[in-house]
Specification:
heterodimer, A: 4-stranded antiparallel beta sheet, 10 strands, B: mainly alpha
Chain lengths: 251, 568
């Protein structure tokens, strides 16, 4: 569903993403983990067609993003980490606008909009300007907009930020239901428990390279993690803060 | 835990560090991109300064050499210039203060830190002063250089000017910040939007008033003034001994006249610090409440739903992406006060423009030859083109920059970027076109232009509008400013300047191409021959069409390529 081949992004001499090869299958929820600045967001923004790769290839549901960007993007729903939307549009107007970007309008879209607004409990605020929305409401609005055109693939960067526990639980259920219906989700997050609980496979990235990729069991086996939790494995692979340094800071 | 008075306070320099460091880093970053940009900027600045200096020098020299009352007349001119600057400064400070005291992104950090109110006030006042006064200060340099040279001010003259202008700049800054502070407190529930509307209306009134006060008709009809003294007393009308512009004028002119009068110096240098103290006291009383109220300023509900319905129906036949894009652009524009309120200033500009044309003494005295009238009509075309370029710079140039933060959505969707550019182009061009045709037609009617000149003007202005709008959009995409907090700042960027210069070059090329055949045609008419459009004229007009089409297509293509290559 998503295939990355030799995907590379360089900014001058700095390599943010270094020749990544990755395949995420249909019906799979893939968790993308890594410390800050590891290259997660850059990779996701390249998959969404926002950043241009320096080298490599991206395929979305079999369509090459560079060769046929319109077709590839029409299969994708992207949810960024920073929910910037047009402040001076109402929630409903924003959704209608996004639908139009995907070439959809009319009665079916109005119905779907109503369903999504209901689902995300935004109906009472649908005619209010987005500038009056809280961070969580904006996040919900963006998630609704990503689902509006019925994508086959969802790429989502830090989806839980700004959501209340109820919203987080709902989102987890939603993504699970989405993959059970044959969709694909690539999700980056720092909430390791969420990844452990939700994801079918995990990729750990640091310094622009994928250090580990597979199911939890496969990663444990490969890195002799025994029954270690994901957090311990993650720190083992990416390097954690030494305890005495922490003590020094706190004192 | 030390008490609040024992807590060490950051210096003003520390508080303003993010601002000046960011400016320095931006400068360094831009320098790394090559010196071409700086060279161009320096060239434009020098050209502008040279022009202002040349004009000022010529006028002052003429006044000094031809009249016994040269010095009082020069003083009067200076007082009018400083009064006009003071109005601009007050308006600019009002708007800038709203942004720096209430909307700036660094305020959350500063207000939540244990920085005392006085330091915050002084830092923000300094920021407001710098942002709103630098342009006027730059403009003042060549004017005062001319004064110094004509009236032999000597080597200390620049220091005297600085000594006069510093408090003169401080006063409108304090006043503007104080008025904004009061307004934010008076209109809490009606949000910042209303405040800005008020400021825009204030600008409208201020400009209209200023226009009336300088009595421009007296300047174009000297025969209406009985003698020079009458003229001078007429010019005295807009001045008052209570205005700081008068004090600054007196301080500078006293130096030039070699008159020892400490009063204006005292007035300037006591009023400015007193104003700062009063402003600080007001700030201490009202700022916290005002800042808190400004945070509640987000608007919840949408007005004028009926209008939304009408526009939605109007664009029903268009493909969904283009239609929704046009509708989105219109909604965002008319719901954003910082955007639509500029229409008021635009209306003032146009009224003044048409009024000026009407005031030209072409039909008031002796009969003016048709040839001269036609020449004025032709030059009016260039002026109208310049006005259009200025409007395009304000409304079309920022179009791509304003999409900045939402570009993730546009780039990750299957939207054809041509549709984006198409929507931006037509939403900008159509109103411009209506405006261009209306002002050209109405001013030509006022000038009693011949049918031939009317046809040439209208045809050219239509072609120019398409080209200028495309250039504004194209240059806006080539030089985007995604990081700005205020849309009004985008046209004053480097890209905006490059666009204005390119638009002026285009106007020049078109006028030069048209000038020879049009003048030939008019000369033939003047000599009583029947003017026949020859190959020379047809060739020139075809060249104008080709130039305008090229100036429309090339910037749009370049802009599209740039948007396609943009990364966020």
């Amino acid at each position: 569903m998503i295939r990355l081949t030799g995907l590379t992004k360089r900014y001058g001499k700095f390599t943010a993403v270094d020749a990544i090869d990755l395949e995420i299958r249909r019906g799979e929820l893939f968790g993308f983990l890594g410390p800050n600045g590891a290259g997660k967001t850059t990779t996701m923004r390249m998959i969404a067609g926002i950043l241009q790769p320096t080298a490599g290839r991206i395929e979305i549901a079999g369509d090459d993003l560079a060769r046929d960007p319109i077709r590839a993007k029409s299969r994708l729903g992207f949810i960024p980490d920073r929910p910037f939307v047009y402040d001076k549009l109402t929630g409903a107007e924003f959704l209608r606008f996004v639908a139009a970007l995907y070439g959809q309008d009319g009665e079916p879209i109005e119905r779907r909009m109503a369903e999504l607004l209901d689902l995300f409990e935004l109906t009472p605020w649908k005619d209010e300007l987005v500038e009056s929305y809280s961070h969580g409401m904006r996040q919900k609005l963006i998630i609704s907009s990503a689902l509006l055109h019925k994508p086959e693939v969802i790429v989502v960067d830090e989806p839980m930020v700004g959501l209340d526990p109820k919203g987080q639980k709902f989102l987890k259920d939603l993504f699970r239901a989405f993959v059970e219906r044959g969709g694909t989700v690539l999700m980056s997050t720092h909430t390791l428990d969420t990844v452990e609980e939700m994801c079918d496979r995990i990729g750990i990235i640091a310094g622009g390279k994928i250090l580990a990729c597979g199911t939890m069991a496969e990663i444990r086996q490969r890195f002799q993690g025994g029954d270690q939790k994901l957090e311990e494995l993650f720190l083992k692979l990416t390097g954690g803060i030494i305890e005495r340094e922490m003590d020094a800071i706190l004192e | 835990m030390p008490s609040s008075s024992e807590l060490p306070q950051p210096s003003l320099q520390t508080i303003t560090t993010p601002k000046w460091r960011s400016a320095l880093n931006r400068l360094r970053q831009e320098r790394a991109g090559g010196n071409g940009k700086f060279f161009l900027l320096a060239l434009v600045a020098l050209g502008f300064w040279a022009a202002v200096f040349g004009l000022s020098y010529k006028i002052l020299n003429y006044i000094q050499s031809t009249s016994e009352v040269g010095v009082p007349l020069a003083a009067k001119f200076l007082s009018i210039i400083l009064l006009a600057f003071a109005s601009l400064l007050l308006l600019s400070n009002l708007i800038t203060a709203l942004s720096s005291f209430f909307l700036a992104k660094d305020l959350d950090l500063l207000v939540s830190s244990p920085t005392d109110w006085l330091r915050l006030y002084l830092a923000k006042l300094g920021e407001t002063l710098l942002h709103s006064s630098w342009m006027v200060a730059l403009m003042a340099v060549p004017i005062f250089t001319a004064y110094g040279m004509v009236f032999e001010g000597g080597p200390l003259f620049p220091l005297v000017v600085i000594g006069a202008l510093l408090p003169y700049f401080i006063l409108p800054s304090v006043l503007g910040s104080a008025i904004t502070l009061i307004l934010v407190n008076v209109f809490p529930a009606r949000r910042t939007r209303d405040l800005l509307s008020l400021i825009a209306l204030g600008a409208f009134g201020g400009l209209a008033l200023l226009f009336r006060l300088v009595r421009p008709e007296q300047l174009v009809r000297p025969e209406g003034v009985r003698n020079l003294l009458d003229y001078l007393s007429g010019l005295q009308a807009p001045t008052s001994p209570f205005l700081p512009s008068e004090w600054a004028t007196a301080m500078i002119m006293n130096w030039l006249r070699q008159v020892a009068d400490p009063l204006p110096i005292l007035l300037l240098w006591t009023t400015a610090p007193a104003f700062i103290v009063l402003g600080a006291m007001l700030h201490a009383r009202l700022y916290h409440a005002g800042y808190s109220k400004a945070q509640e300023g987000a608007e919840k509900f949408v007005r004028a739903r009926g209008w939304s319905g009408i526009t939605a129906r109007l664009f029903r036949g268009m493909p969904p992406a283009r239609r929704e894009f046009v509708l989105k652009d219109l909604r965002v524009f008319f719901r954003d006060t910082t955007q639509w309120s500029q229409l008021i200033l635009l209306a003032v500009l146009l009224v003044v423009y048409v009024f000026n044309i009407k005031s030209l003494p072409l039909f008031s005295g002796e009969k003016v030859p048709v040839f001269l009238v036609s020449l004025v009509v032709f030059l009016n075309l260039g002026l109208a083109g310049f006005v259009l370029a200025a409007i395009a710079a304000r409304f079309v140039f920022p179009a791509v920059s304003l999409e900045g933060k939402q570009m993730w959505l546009l780039r990750s969707s299957p939207l054809d970027l041509q549709a984006l550019l198409w929507s931006k182009y037509w939403t900008g061009t159509l109103p411009l076109l209506v405006l261009a045709v209306v002002i050209t037609f109405s001013t030509n009617v006022l000038l009693r232009a011949t049918t031939f000149m009317m046809a040439i003007s209208l045809g050219t202005i239509v072609l120019l509008t398409f080209a200028i709008s495309a250039m504004a959009l194209g240059f806006g995409a080539l030089y985007p400013r995604f990081d700005t907090e205020n849309a009004a700042q985008i046209p004053t960027s480097f890209g905006g300047m490059v666009f204005m210069m390119s638009a002026i070059v285009l106007l020049g090329v078109v006028l030069v191409l048209e000038a020879a055949p049009v003048l030939g045609y008019l000369r033939a008419q003047l000599q009583g021959d029947t003017p026949v459009p020859g190959p020379w004229m047809v060739g020139s007009l075809v060249a104008v069409v080709v130039v305008c089409i090229a100036a429309t297509i090339i910037p749009l293509r370049l802009g599209l390529r740039r948007i396609e290559a943009m990364e966020f």
